[in-house]
Amino acid sequence: MRILIIEDDVPLADSLITSLKQAEYGVDWAKDGQEADYVLAHQDYDLIVLDLGLPKLDGFQVLKRQRERKPHSPVLVLTARDALGDRVKGLDLGADDYMTKPFELPELEARIRALLRRTSWGGKERIGLGNLSFDASGRRLYCGERAIDLSARELGIFEILLRRVGKVVSKEQLLEGLYGWEGETGDNAIEVYIHRLRKKIDGGSVSILTVRGLGYLMDAQQA
Ligand code: CA
Questions:
Q1: Global pTM exceeds 0.85
Q2: How far away, in angstroms, is 6 Cα from ligand 1 center?
Q3: 70 shares its domain with 152
Q4: How far is 30 from 90, CA to CA, in rounded Å?
Q5: CATH of the domain at 60
Q6: How far is the CA of 48 from the centre of ligand 1 (A)?
Q7: Could you tell me the distance, in angstroms and rounded to a whole number, from the CA of residue 8 to the centre of ligand 1?
Q8: What span, in angstroms and rounded, lies between the C-alpha atoms of 147 and 71?
Q9: pLDDT at 211
Q10: For 61-85, what is each residue's pLDDT tens digit?
Q11: Exposure class string for 165-184: b at 16+ Cβ within 10 A, else e
């Protein structure tokens, strides 16, 4: 999952990025409205976290332009305390949710998970695939009733493959949707994680195929 943080408060942006990175989301950061507008015109995101008070181009303008480009891209707006008018205006412009500052990070993360569940998983609590089922809010994978223990990285990869089930996902797409590959040798590391993931879901009806030169494809065999 790929998230864009649009926030000019550097310490706040920093802590947000750190916690989302730990949750294994791919995170980009734009520190003013103009930069955000540029990035949004060139890149798709699963979720946008948008502060309204921004330099260069305010959050309302960023939202309005994004809605003209992509009416359905999920946006969570951050507003100052007591700014009821801002909240209403934000929702009128098509924000999907809002959060009032100051807030606790775990609460924002819960809102992000809820919004992603609505927008990325069609509001479903559990997504079934063959003998596996994925708890979209808790971000846990089950084989029957048994939980499969995935590392954060494996979970990130699994989510990306599950969202595009039955389709080929390139290594590039996987790298984009994850965070912090700078320290690892991208391609090889992906292979290692795919290998581990395969071992953990082995023996069931779901498999991850290598499509040579193109990427990976996850699907369930027909019974
Ligand atoms: Ca601000």
A1: no
A2: 9
A3: no
A4: 19
A5: 3.40.50.2300
A6: 15
A7: 5
A8: 37
A9: 94
A10: 999 999 999 988 899 999 876 677 8
A11: eeeebebebbbbbbbebeee
